[in-house]
Design a protein that fits this description.
The complex is a heterodimer of chains A (135) and B (134). With 135 residues, chain A is α+β, with helices and mostly antiparallel strands. Chain A is built from two helices and five strands. In chain A, β3 and β4 form a beta hairpin. Classes of the chains: A alpha+beta (135), B alpha+beta (134). At the A-B interface, α1, α2 and β2 of A face α1, α3 and β2 of B. β2 of chain A pairs antiparallel with β2 of chain B, so a sheet runs across the interface.
Chain lengths: 135, 134
């Protein structure tokens, strides 16, 4: 079982430069043919790349928390889009363990993330619920 | 799509997508989430999943596309959330949809209930909520 004292730990996801190539790879993978994304637009779901993934990877690599990734599933996701991201901009990503709780044989981790622009203004905020099924 | 054409009860046109092993692998590359539960059947079985599963965020990307196709301007989508209620596997067909539940003329904002079901009619994305700002 995860210890509640881990709540509040913060993670630096570094800076992500939104590239046209990464957006193209993403829309090809999800199968979204919208021409807006071939002309500098960034799909909302691309937030997983600049707002979620880097900070989450930092959490997953944290040996003190030591999440069991083989038994971890993504339970819920919330995104708030403060404004659309733009190709070419550098976004800073960070995350924070907002809550840890247990239910039956499950550990529940609520992880808040955000992506900030060069001025420090939020572009996207995320809340992820990760569920770890204890065998 | 204009704000005037939307009302409480307006249905969002459904978006149907078949999920393949190749697409899950492509999503793993594009998103950076290469957890073997999405890529390696043997590994996924060994941890009790019965085979590879799609990333929940891939299902969420379909739901986002359903909304942005309807909204026409993707930038209008201001919030999106859901629960990943059931596993999605290669060979499944997902249908996303939604309905407008609130409209605020002073803020020019709408709220929608959104969801996704599989080919057996089981809900795979539940508690879905989307907001759009016109």
């Amino acid at each position: 079982m995860l210890e509640a004292r881990l709540t509040g730990r913060t993670y630096d996801g570094g800076t992500h430069i939104v590239s046209a190539q990464a957006v193209r790879t993403f829309v090809d993978a999800v199968g979204d043919p919208n021409p807006i994304y071939r002309a500098g637009g960034v799909p909302p779901a691309f937030a997983c790349v600049y707002c979620l993934r880097p900070a989450t990877q930092a959490l997953f690599s944290d040996r003190e928390v030591n999440l069991d990734l083989a038994h971890l599933v993504h339970g819920e996701q919330r995104y708030t889009f403060h404004r659309p991201a733009r190709v070419g901009e550098a976004l800073r990503n960070r995350g924070r363990i907002a809550d840890i709780s247990a239910k039956r044989n499950l550990d529940l981790v609520t992880f808040e993330t955000e992506a900030l622009d060069a001025q420090g203004a939020p572009v996207c905020s995320g809340v992820s619920l990760f569920i770890i099924r204890n065998p | 799509m204009t704000f005037d054409r939307v009302d409480v009860g307006t249905e969002i046109p459904p978006l149907m997508r078949a999920v393949s092993r190749e697409q899950i692998a492509a999503y793993a590359e594009a998103s950076g989430d290469k957890n073997p539960i999405h890529l390696d059947d043997g590994f996924a079985r060994s941890v009790g999943l019965g085979g590879v599963i799609a990333h929940g965020l891939l299902d969420l990307a379909f739901l986002a596309q359903c909304l942005t196709d309807w909204l026409e301007e993707p930038a209008r989508l201001s919030a999106l959330s859901c629960r990943f209620a059931a596993m999605v596997r290669p060979g499944d067909t997902i249908t996303c949809g939604g309905r407008v539940t609130a409209k605020d003329p002073s803020l020019k904002r709408i709220t929608c209930s959104v969801w996704a079901t599989n080919q057996r009619g089981e809900r795979v994305l539940t508690h879905g909520l989307a907001e759009a700002q016109f």
